[in-house]
Amino acid sequence: MRSHTASYRPLPPLTAYFIPMLTVTFLGTSAARPTVERNVSGLAIHREGETMLFECGEGTQRQMMRYGVAFTLSEIFFTHFHADHFLGVIGLIRTFGLQGRTDALLLYGPKGAKKVLGAAMQLGVERVPFPVEIVEVKAGDALGDGGRGKREGYDIRVFATEHGGGSVGYVLREHERRGRFDVEKAKAAGIPEGPLWGKLSKGEPIELADGRRLTPDGFVGARRPGRLVVFTGDTRPSASVVDAAQGADLLIHEATFGEEEKDRAKETGHSTAKEAAQVALAAKAKKLVLCHVSARYSLTAEDLVKEAKEVFPDVTVARDGQEIDVPFAE
Ligand SMILES: [Zn+2]
Ligand SMILES: [Zn+2]
């Protein structure tokens, strides 16, 4: 009898099922221009088999190939139209065309997106053989899915940043999740493991073989928050970012400069690592990842990390190709 069950492994508790993955891949972490070590801005967010691209600096398509980011994405989000954030879309779209893509592509960006991205679509003699829709967004918008059945379990919202020209950042916020199913209580109440557990954990009443009827009360805990990922793009430290990033599981903030160039940061509409850390602290973010670093920090960004850590402990500077998983807080 035992020999038949030797390979049996108990299933993980019910609450461990259906945890959607949420990861980000940094495709480019250099400010203004590429360096040997770092490409210009590009960030992929993966959630449950879906990939979204944020920014598409020159060379982003090659970074996607290097770091295994699928070309099957259908949306690209731009924070503003400085060249280091969008020039790559010209080549990427041509490659999509060569691959025979027929699916529509949606491009989101602040005011001016239609003009700038529209012009990018016209460059080159190759015609773009699939529909491209350009959507101009503004702070406060919640971005729909263009009727493609996306945005299941999450929203994408737009917030204002301080970088001039109507620059914006984006928030990916998951909807609340069901409460935790209390396996021990279910066992103690004599509910057999299996479909009845599933029903109860989904909030449905059940009837046991002995005729007892039970409701989920007491077996399922309070609803739990989903995850929150915030991407600023280029910006000065800003109250609107602090608001958007309240309790963020992951805040991805630009940090172009170190403290010794804090005046330059101010003049050029950027942040220092320390300023980004102050934003993370004020927002009570759980984790801060810095990107868009000046070429002088290309090889090593230890100074930026050190300055930021004085203010906010859980901080790193992303490197190209780095993948960061966003776990649930509870
Ligand atoms: Zn930039
Ligand atoms: Zn910029």
Question: What's the gist of this structure?
Answer:
The protein has 330 residues and is of the alpha/beta class. The protein is built from ten helices and 15 strands. The strands form three sheets. A seven-stranded mixed beta sheet has the order 6-5-4-3-2-1-15. A six-stranded mixed beta sheet has the order 7-8-11-12-13-14.
Q: What secondary-structure arrangement, pairings included, does this model have?
A:
Elements: E1 22-28, E2 42-47, E3 50-56, H1 60-66, E4 75-77, H2 83-86, H3 88-98, E5 105-109, H4 113-122, E6 132-136, E7 154-160, E8 168-174, H5 183-188, H6 195-201, E9 206-207, E10 213-214, E11 228-231, H7 239-244, E12 250-254, H8 262-268, H9 273-282, E13 288-291, H10 302-309, E14 315-317, E15 323-325
One zinc ion (ZN) binds at residues 80, 82, 163, 234.
Walk me through this protein's architecture.
With 330 residues, this protein is of the alpha/beta class. It has ten helices and 15 strands. The protein has helices spanning 60-66, 83-86, 88-98, 113-122, 183-188, 195-201, 239-244, 262-268, 273-282, 302-309, and strands at residues 22-28, 42-47, 50-56, 75-77, 105-109, 132-136, 154-160, 168-174, 206-207, 213-214, 228-231, 250-254, 288-291, 315-317, 323-325. Strand 13, helix 10 (302-309) and strand 14 (315-317) form a beta-alpha-beta unit. It is globular and about 70 Å long.
Bound molecules: zinc ion
Described by the principal axes of the CA atoms, the overall outline is globular
For the biggest sheet, the summary is: 7 strands, mixed
Gap between N and C termini, in Å?
A: 39 Å
Please report the total strand number as a whole number. Answer: 15
Overall structural class, as computed from helix and strand content, comes to alpha/beta
Low-confidence stretches: 1-6
